[in-house]
Amino acid sequence: MQLNFKKDYVFRVESERSQNGELYARLHIGLFPKNKALTFSTALRRSLLSDIPALVISDIIVFGVEHEFETLPGIQEPFFDIIENLKKIVIAHISEGLEFFLSNPGEIKGFINFKGPGEIKAHDIILPSDFFCVTPDQHIATVSHNGELIIGLKIILMDPNRVNQINKYGITQLDNFKLSEVFLRKKKTTKKNQKVLNLNCVPNPVKKVTFFIQQLEKKQNLEFIDLEIVTDGSITPKQALRYSILKLTKFFSHYIF
């Protein structure tokens, strides 16, 4: 294999998108002095699998439900199954750089307002124009001819390292998560029959990371990393790689003295 590392330290060899929305990329990183690539790639793999933030549905507002084990009239599935289906939805931002993942976008609100009969899918979620569902055909619920499902969604960019803090100390600020007065009047409902449920979602945008250490054929004292990354589609493998390298660089910079 003839490699050219003169221009790019990291470059993509191949990439593809699967039918379930997952993104795959194979990248080459190098060059490294002999026996140094393994040290770097081990730390990089750990960071990719545990440090990448992702958009998750953290909380929902439901009408006419007191707890997650209830059933709604006109809805085929128990509400617990609807919650599990909502947890499977992957939401992404249209940006291609790291600016969004390094920012603090705050709360993003989405809505489901569906009147039966029919099947509710992820593409029925109303989102801001710069957000989209990676798997638009993801099933949510089945509504009969006399059924109606109204759900408000709170979406946040969650850091995996802060999941326990958010769930323990209530940093999600549920008091600020309210549907608009106009929406409430339109549906002839009140805030009294709203119920806020926390979904306890854990972000896991990077599904798989594998690497191999390769040596150059003509220079045995130099090596490079053959890296494969699979994400859920909410972030590209290259974005995840850049974020992890930035995270590791920032982490180790604290120990410079």
Automatic annotation (TrEMBL):
Q: At the top level of its lineage, which domain of life is listed?
A: Eukaryota
Name the SUPFAM superfamilies for this protein. Insert subdomain of RNA polymerase alpha subunit, RBP11-like subunits of RNA polymerase
**Can you name a GO cellular component term?**
DNA-directed RNA polymerase complex
Coiled-coil annotated residue ranges, if any: none
Pfam assignment, any one = RNA_pol_L
Provide the alphabetized UniProt keywords. Answer: DNA-directed RNA polymerase, Plastid, Ribonucleoprotein, Ribosomal protein, Transcription
A single BP term in Gene Ontology? DNA-templated transcription
GO function terms (MF aspect): DNA-directed RNA polymerase activity; protein dimerization activity
Can you give the residue ranges of the DNA-directed RNA polymerase RpoA/D/Rpb3-type domain? 24-255
Q: What is this protein called?
A: Plastid-encoded RNA polymerase subunit alpha
Native source species: Prototheca wickerhamii
* Name of the encoding gene: rpoA
